[in-house]
Amino acid sequence: MLTLAQQITFSGRKIRRGPCAIASSVLFEHTWTRRIVLSSLLHAVVVAAAPIQVEQSIDRVFAVSDVHCDYTLNQDWLAELKQKQYGQNDVLLLAGDISDDLGLIRQSLSTAAEAFGRVFYVPGNHELWVRGEPHSIKNGTAQDSIQKLQLILQLCQELGIHTTPARLGNLCIVPLLSWHHSSWDKEPDIQGVPHVSALSIADYGACIWPDTGPGQGVQGSLDIAEWFDKQNQTGWQELLQQKQGCDVISLAHFLPHQALLPEKRYLFYPNLAKAAGSEPLAHRLRALQPDVNIFGHTHFSWDATIEGFVVDAKDMDSQCAFSNCNAAHDDIQA
């Protein structure tokens, strides 16, 4: 049984907040009214292109991030989703951090694809770790993190997992690649806190960036974050045109705004802020202006409205469900 935490109501492009309630969708002057129920789970823990028209009615959209299937308990939780009442008209959004093991990524995405009609996914930071020997089961043929990303996107294509925008009736879902950079942190440092390094930030030790690639191999470089953002550029103008009149949900692993992270004085490691967010991602979201952006990474669950759109972090401790109870009608599509 899921516990209702909060409800957000959308009517066209206008956002308003209401009390907790079980909600449905209605058709009003050709506008699909959607209600989002944010619930807590009680059991457990490449290149972007213009959206394609998908002729499919959608009943519900679920979102979660940071499932970390390196842990058996989380693998079991994901496997149990196949036993739930999800159908071919239900969509799952996975906002990154499944595993750094290609075998587990394949297994987890395959499981999700069996449970839901469609799965949208963006890799997180853990997926791009390159640890152990090259040409291993965990890393495949990847010798650096960019090659690892390419292998993951190829795997998604093989499994039918969406990593590019798609339009499902009146709903546009937009996965966005992103990466963190240290200059995103604008809060003053706390004296005495160790500087970021491979000893304090796992990505700095586990990710490998080629010397001739973006950032020239320097961890925390803005150039790396900009390179990831540029992968979203193909078909971007067409996307902005085609999203008109649609409800838009975007998903990206990292934080677009520092207001989504607790102040440094409340963090176990205050310099987490230097490996959490992306300014290029923030700029892209300002242009897209989604109704909702799903993110993860920090394992803090958030629900806030920033710069005109709702941002939600949904890790293993929470999920959100978008319901459309009138999906049986041909002219009502999410």
How would you characterize the overall build of this protein?
With 334 residues, the chain is α/β, with parallel strands linked by helices. Helix content is 21%, strand content 23%. It has 7 helices and 15 strands. Strands 1, 2, 3, 4, 6, 7, 8 and 15 form an 8-stranded mixed β-sheet that branches. The protein has a 7-stranded mixed β-sheet with strand order 5-9-10-11-12-14-13, with no helix packed on it. Strand 9 and strand 10 form a beta hairpin. The chain starts with a strand and ends in an 11-residue tail after the last strand.
Order of helices and strands: EEEEEEHEHEHEEHHHEHEEEE
Contiguous uncertain segments of 5+ residues = 1-45, 321-334
Largest sheet geometry: 8 strands, mixed
Q: What is the chains' assembly state?
A: single chain
**Can you count the beta strands?**
15
Percent of residues in helices: 10-25%
What is the CA-atom radius of gyration, in angstroms?
19 Å
**How would the global form be characterised?**
globular
Summarize the structure.
By secondary structure, this protein is an alpha/beta fold. The chain has helices at residues 72-80, 102-115, 145-159, 202-206, 222-230, 236-242, 279-288, and strands spanning 3-11, 14-18, 26-28, 31-40, 52-54, 60-64, 90-94, 118-121, 166-168, 171-175, 247-251, 292-295, 302-306, 309-313, 318-323.
